[in-house]
Amino acid sequence: MVPVMFNHSYQKARILTLFRAFVCLFITVVNGYAGVPIKIMPLGDSITQGLGSGINEVSYRQQLFLSLVEAGYDVDFVGSRKKGSFATPYFDADNEGHPGWTASQVASNVYDWLVQNNADVVLLHVGTNWGYCALRCGDYSKRDR
Question: Is 75 within 8 Å of 37 (Cβ atoms)?
Answer without folding.
Answer: yes
